[in-house]
Specification:
alpha+beta, 8-stranded antiparallel sheet, 7-stranded antiparallel sheet, 13 helices, 22% helix
């Protein structure tokens, strides 16, 4: 090898050694280019994702928005005239929970604000004289020819309704009402075209979006409050829970705001202010405007809303329930009970079925099924794709008309402790459904199973609302006719498997809605 070749080889080895040394040093100091692992880590960082969005340099001004929306917001005065005061002791107004007892006291106060004693009449009113009670709320104009939207509870039972707009009062005609969604449509004749609000898309609203509420809280005309969307899809149990899908906001809502608009920054209505929890602050609720858009045509044309009806009780699936039914996801609506002599019952729908699609439309949650069926209308037919014990079943159902939901009676708990059996890991005690227990809980002879007599606070069934008086009728689709069959099924289950218990709550003659409770065998 020549001298030149030796020099070239030496130079190459020196360069190669320097490169290797540099790579080792850079790796030790974390100076290498981030790889896929680093990219994956950053994609999971909520802080980095939030930081990538444009920062807010200043809060928006709502002045122009309020000035534009204000002329389309109205106040509602609803008067009820009766021969005598309506009884106060025949049930609790669900809205009193949200607005508190204050407004009730105001209705019972005298003209000068002096409280009257129980049973006392207003000055000048005798026993047979007409009695007048006044209520109020808010609303908003949705068309230039004078259609006005408000809450049903604002005008419920009123014999006379007036709309205050600008500096004038207009007599209002109640064009349509829907108790299930707490919505009402009024019509006024102003003799001119009116400023109105356009209806937006509540499905497009995101948690954290700015909102504005305009209304007449506590008779303070045209009060503007602002806040953000705090949550979506809330169910409160103050109306028909099947259709409750409230938007929660921290924009201040007070008594008198009911029926007023919740608007976005473009001035579009995204909700109708409905209720607050009077014991809390900055927790208000609004009916989504898309609910209004669904019922508005029927309110205008028929004055009421007719809905399709299956006659089933359904729940969303949680992860444990999905595993217990052998499913890979929580998509679908779990049928927990089928009412007798209903369209679903006649079509062969059974409890334990999982409805995965209707007319080819996938069902991810119960809301998807409820909205679709309700909007189809009575007399329509729908095709249901159902999973039954892991096997697909197709059913065709001709829909009936949904009845108004009756008030649910208050349930009480009771226990019977004689002759109890137990499974320790389940944390419950139970016994055969004897004749005396049937009579005590008013359980029909058509129902078999074991009655739960005690539930430990540490039981996996406790947080699923299984309580004394609950009857377990099935385990994993197998009927339970007594303690012996119940224990045989449970003790025969493999460790790590899931048990789905079909249970019926009974207490003092009041039968609750059946449901599935799921536990995992340790």
């Amino acid at each position: 090898m020549s001298t030149t070749q030796r020099r070239q080889l030496t130079t190459f080895l020196l360069v190669l050694g320097a490169v290797v040394f540099g790579m080792v040093l850079a790796g030790g100091l974390n100076l290498t280019v981030p790889g896929r692992a680093a990219d994956a880590e950053s994609s999971l960082s909520a802080t980095q994702i939030a930081g990538n969005n444009a920062p807010i340099t200043s809060l928006p001004s709502f002045a122009d928005l309020a000035q534009a929306v204000d002329p389309a917001v109205v106040s509602i005065q609803a008067a009820t005239i009766e021969n005598r005061p309506r009884g106060r002791g025949q049930g609790t107004d669900p809205f009193e929970f949200f607005f508190g007892p204050r407004f009730r006291q105001e209705q019972e106060d005298g003209e000068e604000g002096t409280p009257r004693g129980p049973g006392q009449r207003p000055p000048g009113q005798g026993e047979g004289d007409p009695f007048r009670s006044d209520a109020g709320g808010s609303g908003f104009v949705i068309s230039r020819d004078g259609f006005v939207v408000t809450n049903f509870h604002v005008i419920d039972g009123a014999t006379e309704v007036k709309v205050h707009l600008g500096d004038r009062d207009y007599p209002a005609e109640v064009k349509g009402t829907d108790r299930a969604t707490d919505l009402a449509l009024l019509k006024i004749n102003a003799g001119e075209n009116l400023r109105f609000l356009e209806l937006g898309d509540s499905d497009a609203v995101r948690v954290g979006d700015w909102t504005m509420v305009i209304g007449n809280p506590l008779n303070l005309d045209k009060t503007v409050t602002t806040g953000v969307v705090s949550a979506k899809g809330r169910s409160l149990g103050i109306s028909d829970a099947s259709f409750e899908n409230f938007i929660q906001t921290d924009a201040a809502i007070n008594f008198g705001n009911s029926g007023g608009p919740l608007v976005n920054l473009r001035g579009e209505v995204v909700g109708i202010a409905t209720a607050i929890n009077w014991g809390a602050e900055n927790i208000g609720f609004a009916v989504p405007v898309n609910t209004l858009k669904e019922v508005l045509p029927q309110l205008r044309e028929k004055g009421k809303v007719s809905r399709g009806y299956l006659g089933i009780q359904i729940n969303n699936l949680n992860w444990n329930q999905a595993r217990a039914f052998g499913l890979e996801s929580t998509d679908g609506a779990l049928v927990v009970s089928v009412e007798a002599d209903t369209p679903a019952g006649e079509a062969g729908v059974r409890h334990g079925d999982i409805i995965t699609s209707v007319d080819g439309r996938p069902i991810k949650t119960t809301r998807d099924l409820i909205n679709y069926v309700a909007n189809k209308g009575p007399g329509s037919s729908v095709d249901l794709d159902v999973l039954r014990n892991g096997k697909p079943v197709q059913l065709k159902v001709k829909l009936g008309e949904r009845p108004e939901r009756d008030a649910v009676a208050e349930r009480e708990e009771e226990r019977e402790e004689d002759g109890e059996s137990s499974i320790e890991w389940m944390g419950i005690q139970y016994q055969d459904l004897s004749q005396s227990l049937r009579q005590m809980h008013d359980v029909p002879t058509s129902v078999d199973g074991v009655v739960v007599t005690q539930v430990a606070p540490t039981s996996p069934l406790y947080e699923q609302f299984v309580r004394p008086g609950t009857i377990i009728t099935e385990v994993n689709g197998q009927e339970v006719d007594g303690v012996e069959s119940f224990e045989r099924i449970v003790k025969g289950a493999k460790a790590g498997s899931y048990l789905r218990l079909y249970v019926m709550p009974f207490a003092r003659g009041q039968r609750g809605q059946p449901f599935f409770a799921v536990v995992q065998v340790p």
